[in-house]
Design brief:
about 375 residues, 2 domains, 2 strands, elongated
Amino acid sequence: MRPLTGSSGPASALEPPLSPTGDWTATGLTPALTRLPHGPALPPADQLDLTQVRRMDTAGIVLLLEWPGQTAAAVVAAALAADRPDIAHLARLVAGAPVTAPAVRAPEEGWLVSVGRRVASFGDDLVENLAFYGELLIALGRLLRHPARLRLAPTLTQIERTGLDAVPIIGLANVFVGATIAFLGASLLAQFGASVFAVELVGVSVLREFAVLITAIILAGRSASSFAAEIGAMKMTQEIDAMRVMGVDPFDSLVLPRFLGMLAIMPFLALLGMIAGLAGGLLVLWPVLDLSPEFFLTRIVDNVGLKHFWLGLAKAPVMAVVVAAIGCRHGFATGDDVDQLGRHVTSAVVQALFAILAIDAVFALIFMEMGL
């Protein structure tokens, strides 16, 4: 009758008694388990001798408890008989550990269920956004009744961070957009001998659409994500709960300064975008069509006029409200872990971009119906 060995020797099928030797540990049993039969193929053992075991951990205990004919009481008795109280204590711990059911993989959802979940999630986000806008209106009403509640210093800070720090990227992006429109317009209109009308094309497209649209898109990626990350991080670290405990309204101290700062600076950023877009168009049309800056500006004033300027600028406050509200709302919706923070920051940017494009389309329909 040969003993079953751990790391000290080979393993083989065994008639009772069971006399393990060597190291019965997770690493010591590895070579033995590769040659040991499993399940019903294990030979039964009515007796157990643990006198030759050097070391044993939970892996060895589990193997003994799964051996046919062995129980926790038998392993404890054999360990005490071999003067190994450490093995007996380990056997009691393993035997008393709760048994958890194996994880069952959830069935994969069909495409129809996945689409339904996304539609339901979109509806939930829409309801939460509307509720947040309602709370924002209430906070603005409180501010109008009590102007002293305005936190001027944080508002000015948000104006600087949201607006002044974004001037370089907004100006550069609009210059490139205006230059691209001018180049394409000059190339296409040259086929009809109407290259000079590229000036009107640049003026209308930049003033009415692209300047405010590009500015809002940049702020959606830059400021909406920043608002969501800042407020979300404060919620994760329970700073918002601490503010409530101290009697400070988080909406007044966190949302209103960002909202008012964005609302105040957005028209100026849109104006900057318009100037930069026209400058980009001029930089292309001047050398390509040999149009002087005086001629370019004269045609803009005479043929484009202020109508398209005011129509484009009218969109700026609405887009500022949407970008600021979506960013702050996702910041308050963040949970207590970093994963949720990342998902809400991403959702804030995506929803802000979608809202900007939808608002621009709605304005285009309204202006068309009004004949503007």
